[in-house]
Description:
- The complex is a heterodimer.
- By secondary structure, chain A is mainly β.
- Chain A has a domain at 46-171: Sandwich (Immunoglobulin-like).
- Chain A has one helix at residues 144-149, and strands spanning 4-8, 13-14, 32-43, 46-50, 63-75, 80-87, 91-94, 101-103, 105-109, 120-121, 127-129, 135-141, 155-156, 160-167.
- Chain A starts with a strand and ends in a 16-residue tail after the last strand.
- Residues 1-27 and 177-183 of chain A have low confidence and may be disordered.
- Chain B contains 1 helix and 12 strands; from the N terminus they run βββββββββββαβ.
- In chain B, the strands form 2 sheets. Chain B has a 5-stranded antiparallel sheet with strand order 2-4-11-8-9, with no helix packed on it.
- In chain B, a hairpin with a 6-residue loop joins strand 6 (91-94) and strand 7.
- The two termini of chain B are 27 Å apart.
- Chains A and B meet through strand 1, strand 2 and strand 3 of A and strand 1, strand 2, strand 3, strand 4 and strand 12 of B.
- Strand 2 (13-14) of chain A pairs antiparallel with strand 1 of chain B.
Amino acid sequence: MMKKILAVLSALALMAAPMTAFAANPITESTEQTGDVTISTEIAPAYIVTIPADTKVKFGDNVTEFGKIELTEARLEPGKVVAVDVYGDFVMKNSADESKTILYDVIGYDDMDGTDIPEYSFIDSSYFTDVKGHSVRLRIEIDDEEWHKAPAGSYSDVLTFLVSYITDPDTEPPEEENNTSEN
Amino acid sequence: MKKLISALSALMLMTSPLSAYADTAITDSSAEKKGETQITMEVAPAYTVVIPADIKIEEGATNTYFGDYYLEKGVLEPGYYVNVAIDGYFEMEHSLDDSEILPYDIVSSDSLVVENGENGYFSYKDYSVNIRRIDNHMPMYILIDEADWENSAAGSYSDTVTFYITYQQPKDQSN
Lengths: 183, 175
């Protein structure tokens, strides 16, 4: 291992002759030498986000609980948050005839920490947080009109939960209209 | 400083205007004389101390070997030592937010410096070490609590400590 050397050297002084050699860096009790050493480390960011499991909606229900999104584990850098976006058509399609559809919405509500926040739709909003253990409940909403017009059959849709590690939007200057929800 | 020994007698040759006399003159005709000349030599104290280089600690490590310091070369007066002390806050600061800190300690085994030491550790926050023997290595370790790792935000941390090397005569060694 390469090491830093503090060297304080002086020449031998021979006094036998009238000529005397003096050390270039004489050492006395008051002489002090110093050396700086840097100690560092790096902690990698890490997080675990839990998303809802597959859910079956009961026919005719306007509101169906859909589990929650939770930041289960988090070690983030200062000023960073974990954001969750939900992507999909938000349209359940009939397995026999894709032209037959049921529109639905995914609503985020009840942050479970007592914070009173407006509910928001994941069609045009995101969830973000930097707090380990923080979560948002989800529910699926379907209007009566959608149920009434839907022929019988099996319907389904797939939602993609996209998790990203970003700079906290609250600390960034606002851009053009962006319906994001705070948590 | 040389002593001048003058060897003068009543017999002085005046025939020549030029006379030369040595500082210490001993001739065949003079009674035995003794002359003493003192030869002295002074060796200035000198030392070379090797200290560790910069170090990067692996994430999560609670005990990291930091390196040794030792007296690589040394010409010391009797009773004198080279004292090694470390100064610093012993806290690594986050590069983006200096309110985020990761505390640490630098220690060495006390059995290396204390007779009958119990193989415990002493901290350089509280102690400095006197060294005198050449090539007697003093290993150091950086300790970080597991809880401090767990409570730390992600990112880069660093700190700088200063090694102070002084040449001194401990008070209990003074004459």
